[in-house]
Amino acid sequence: MKAGRAVSAALVVLLAGCDAGPPAAQPAPASPSASPPASAPPAPSPTPADLTLAFGGDVHFTGRTADLLKDPATAFGPIASVLSGADLAVVNFETAITTRGTPEPKEYHFRAPVSAYAAAKAAGVDAVSVANNHALDYGRVGFADTLDGAAAAGMPVFGGGRNIDEAYAPLILPVRGVRVAILGFSQIHTLAESWKAGPSTPGIAMAWDVPRAVAAVRSARERADLVVVFNHWGTETVSCPNDDQKRFAAALADAGADLIIGAHAHVLQGDGMLGRTYVAYGLGNFVWYVGSGATGVLKVRVHGRSVTSADLIPAVVSSTGRPAPLTGTAAASAAKRFTDLRACTGLAPVARSGDTP
User: Who has the most CB within 10 Å: 63, 141, 326, 332?
Assistant: First the structure.
C-alpha cells in the first residue's frame, strides 16, 4: 500500500528560479522546547523491513508548467509511474499554494492553485516539503493558504508550520508497518530571518539553527524506525556541495538521520555514504518553468535502517516543464554522470542496483 493512502487514516494530518539563501519540518511537535505528544507513538518495529523510497527535486506550477494543472491527473507526465511504484515518494514544493497575499521583497515569486496538491497525489507523491525559499513568496497569508490547502487535500507537508514546534517536528508516516519520520530544513539566506517560524509565528524550519535541527532529528530517531531529512541547500548551478552542506550533513548524520536528501541548486549533485547515513546532496529541478536540464527520480532501497542501493532513474526537464524519462544508452550515460558527481562530495560509494529504464 502506498503511504499516501494509509496517511489519511494515520495522520489525523533555469537558473532564474531560486533566490540564494536557509531552512524547516511539520505535523506532531518534536523540537527541543516542545512538550511530548499527548499519547506516545507506538514503539519502533522490531523487525527490519524492505522499502523502496522515491525522491524528486523542486516542483512548481508557474509559466509553462501552470498549464499542466488543466489536467492534474497527468501533470507530472510518465515519470509518475516511478513515484507511484515506490512505497513512499517525496518531492519539494518550490512554491506557495495560494491565490492571495502580497509578494515578498525578493526577485522571484512562485505560486500555484490548490490543484497542485491534486497533481502531486495523482502522481503518487505521498508528502511534500515546504522548507524552501519560495514557500512564503506571498507572505504569511499565502503560507497559511499553503498549509490549509494541504490539509484540505489530504497531502502531508513537512518543513514548516504555524509555529516553531510544528515547523521542526517530524512528519511520521506508517509505510508498510514501518514508522518513517521526515523532516525538512532550509539553508537559504534570503529572508531567512523573517521567514523562520517563531513561538507563535508561522514559518519554516531553518538549517541555520543547527542545535534545534539536530534536536529535532534526535527526537525523530527516538520515535521512528527510519529517519529521512530533506534539505533545501547548496550553491545555485554548482554540482559540488558547499562547506555549509557538508557540515550540516555531518551534524544530521551524527544525530541519527538515516537518509539526507537535498535540492535547490538547479543541477544534480552527488550522492554516497557518510558513515552509515546515505546522502544525496542535490536532485535539481523536477517540474520546472524554464529551460532544460538533467533530473530524475532517486530510487533508494532500504532494509531496516540500512540503504542497500540507490539509483537515479534519469530524466530531462522537457519543453513542457515535465521530467521526461530517458531510456537505453541515454539513461545509462546519465546514470554514470550522476555517479561521477560523487568525486567532490567526500562520500563513500553506495551500491547501485542498475535500475534504470
Answer: 326
**pTM of the full structure:** 0.90
Instruction: Assess if residue 353 is contained within a domain.
Output: no
Pairing of strands 50-59, 88-93: parallel
5 pLDDT higher than 50? no
Q: What percent of the chain has pLDDT over 90?
A: 85
Residue 268 belongs to a domain with what CATH number? 3.60.21.10
Is 334 inside a domain boundary?
yes
Q: How many domains does the chain have?
A: 1
Which residues have CB under 8 Å from 32's CB, separation 6+? 211, 212, 215, 216
**pLDDT tens digits, 49-66:** 999 999 999 999 999 999
DSSP 35: P
- Assess if residue 36 is contained within a domain: yes
Beta bridge partners of 273: 278, 348
352 falls within a domain:
no
Distance set, CA 249 to CA 26, 190, 243, 294 (Å): 20, 21, 10, 23
What pLDDT digit, counting tens, does each position of 337-348 carry? 999 999 999 999
Cell numbers that stand for 340 in this block: 561521477
Determine the average pLDDT of the residues in 236-243.
98
